[in-house]
Design brief:
6-stranded mixed beta sheet; 15 strands; AAA+_ATPase; 15 helices; alpha/beta; about 35% helix; binds guanosine-5'-diphosphate
């Protein structure tokens, strides 16, 4: 029930909740076994961990909603990463780089009982380069006696180490106070979109669907536009390209090239990369291998786009392999797996033959239009009035909540706040979403609806 609600593109916000996409992001990085997961559990508390552990929520989930001193934020957990000994330095640094690109500030965890290692030094370099604020945590300081251990971490050059025992909770409050002080009010990673200039696109999808093939097809054949298009600031990992006659910024192309899925601990990496790319983008093209059965993993990527509040286009790739036998099966799989997102533009392509690749551009435009649509308050309320007159909320235990007033609080993605006399049940909220889409379009964009109860 909850999952269906999310996949339908509606996520209800509680009360005065800040939308997740705007919450500041804190990432926890460090070598394996320094206690990152223990620290994350400590911050989240058991209750939060259980809440997140609902069916359909991915095992390799790395972003959690957390709260400290009444301030909500997003915690990025990079623990749980399976590693092998070979190439460990590079891997940990790589992981830190991804996490940092996702975050507004970073908690760097070092094992105080071990002291600084060569791998820790590598991570420090990555953190320095990022320019993001860093809090150095000396973990496993289980007692006052161990505090001398923490002092050895001054040599990392990241300032004062915060002595903490993630296991027992010692020092974690002070540490969190310090971490919160590093976070901005509104996230710069989720929300920082350059105004004007080319839009930012992420090509995402599970391994082997054809991301690198599509990238190469675009880079190889489309004119790569000059770098100094007005209003463009971009990472070296991003690429400026032309699709369908317009310039676009493809984000995190380095990540696509790196083919992370061939290495060990790959799923976790791929998931981090995907999330980082989606966060950086305004619109995501989720690529699905049309020649194969649609899987849970495909749906999960779509879910991540919706959760992040980004515009969405679904591209069915490898259409050159499509035969008439497979086709009805594909349509049925789409019907079953993606029934909740009929609003997402669909394009069938072949990265290999370049068939219809240029059409992606048109769909990106459509999705971004929906994402940026604003409904004037007058029109919205006329619509809500008609909707509730024609189809009122069902009566529940003798009560019938009424919608009093609505407003679109935000765009990119569209966010609506409805004031009502009582709780609106999920089915009715989905009905409102469906009708909103019929009336105002919103093609290619998730919609957020929050309900505030006024007596
Ligand atoms: P990760 O790989 O960085 O996520 O590390 P884990 O959180 O899995 O912790 C690795 C090991 O260190 C586990 O056995 C933990 O119980 C232990 N550990 C974590 N934090 C502390 C701590 O504050 N004190 C002590 N003594 N052990 C800890
Ligand atoms: P990625 O892991 O998502 O980057 O996928 P790749 O681009 O590496 O593609 C995985 C495999 O699918 C490779 O063998 C590609 O040649 C193949 N492939 C990708 N796109 C197409 C396509 O449109 N048609 C066909 N027939 N094969 C494709």
């Amino acid at each position: 029930e909850e999952d269906a609600a999310v996949l339908s593109g509606v996520r209800e916000l509680r009360g005065d909740e800040i939308p997740d996409a705007a919450l500041p992001v804190l990432a926890v990085v460090g070598r394996p076994n320094v206690g990152k997961s223990t620290l994350v559990n400590r911050v989240l508390g058991r209750r939060e961990a259980v809440v997140q552990d609902t069916p359909g929520v991915t095992r390799d989930r790395v972003r959690y909603r957390a709260e400290w001193a009444g301030r909500p934020f997003i915690l990025v957990d990079t623990g749980g990463w399976e590693h092998d000994a070979r190439g460990l330095n590079a891997r940990v640094a790589d992981q830190a780089e991804i996490a940092v690109s996702l975050a507004d500030a970073v908690i760097f965890v070092v094992d105080a009982t071990v002291g600084p290692t060569a791998t820790d030094e590598k991570v420090v370099q990555v953190l320095r380069r990022s320019g993001k604020p860093v809090l150095l945590v000396a973990n496993k300081v289980d007692s006052g006696r161990d505090e001398a251990d923490a002092a050895t971490l001054w040599s990392l050059g990241l300032g004062e180490p915060y002595p903490v025992s993630a296991l027992h909770g010692r020092g974690s409050g002070d540490m969190l106070d310090a971490a919160m002080a590093l976070l901005p009010e509104i996230s710069a990673v989720g929300g920082a979109m350059p105004a004007g200039g080319p839009h930012r696109v992420a090509l995402v999808g599970k391994p082997n669907v054809g991301k690198s093939s599509l990238l190469n097809s675009i880079l190889g054949h489309q004119r790569v536009v000059v770098d100094d298009v007005a209003g463009t600031t971009r990472d070296p990992v991003d690429e400026l390209v032309e699709v369908g006659g317009k310039p676009w910024i493809l984000v995190d192309t380095a990540g696509i090239r790196r083919r992370v899925h061939q290495t060990q601990g790959a799923d976790f990496y791929a998931s981090l990369r995907t999330q980082a790319a989606i966060e950086k983008a305004e619109v995501a093209v989720v690529i699905i291998d049309a020649s194969q059965t649609i899987t849970e993993q495909d749906i999960r990527v779509i879910q991540e786009v919706i959760d992040a509040g980004r515009a969405l286009v679904v591209a069915y790739n490898k259409w050159d392999l499509m035969d008439e036998d497979r086709r009805p099966y594909l349509e049925r799989e789409i019907e079953q797996g993606l029934v909740q997102i009929p609003w997402a533009p669909r394009v069938n392509i072949s990265a290999k033959t370049r068939w219809h690749v240029d059409r992606i551009g048109k769909h990106l435009d459509t999705a971004l239009d929906g994402w940026e649509t604003r409904v004037p308050t007058g029109r919205l309320n006329a619509f809500l009035g008609e909707l509730s007159a024609a189809t009122p909320h069902p009566v529940r235990s003798g009560k019938q909540p009424r919608i009093l007033f609505g407003t679109q609080a935000d765009t990119r993605p569209p966010r609506f706040v409805l004031f009502a006399t009582g709780f609106l049940e999920a089915g009715y909220r989905r009905f409102i979403e469906r009708r909103l889409r019929e009336e105002f379009g919103f093609v290619g964009t998730p919609i957020e609806i929050s309900v505030r109860v006024r007596e």
